[in-house]
Specification:
- It contains 3 helices and 5 strands.
- It is of the alpha/beta class.
- It has a 5-stranded mixed β-sheet, sandwiched between helices.
Length: 122
């Protein structure tokens, strides 16, 4: 049986468990197309988990917060801060979500904010 298509998200790698959860909820809400693993910086090789291009919103799914993952250790935290600082300077809004935030209610609020931003710019 072929794998299920991921119609609202495009990616080049296998998504994590949390990313799959995010994608399922996003599809449930009929969220707009997102670019997965989006390289947002012209010189650095940084990638955001997801990007909504029209609103210039980057969505990062932060894993490992309870097990001392990369984002919690000093070196990883500093690198993330640099990445998000450059994203903001480049005109991107960065939304960071942890596992407990991956709910229909929260993603519905995010979707409304993205749609509001998108419509006010156009």
């Amino acid at each position: 049986m072929p794998p299920k298509k991921r119609p609202t998200v495009t990616a080049s790698r296998t998504p994590s468990r949390l990313e799959r959860r995010f994608e399922l909820l996003w599809r449930t809400l009929n969220g707009p197309k997102l670019e997965a693993e989006f390289r947002f910086h012209p010189k650095r090789r940084w990638r955001a988990d997801y990007a909504h291009m029209p609103s210039r919103t980057l969505i990062e799914i932060e894993g490992g917060v309870w097990v001392g993952g990369r984002h919690n250790r000093a070196a990883g935290f500093v690198k993330d801060a640099e990445k998000y600082f450059e994203a903001a300077l480049g005109g991107w809004r960065v939304v960071r979500l942890v596992d407990s935030q991956l709910t229909l209610e929260n993603l519905s609020r995010l979707l409304a904010a993205i749609q509001n931003e998108w419509h006010t710019k156009n």
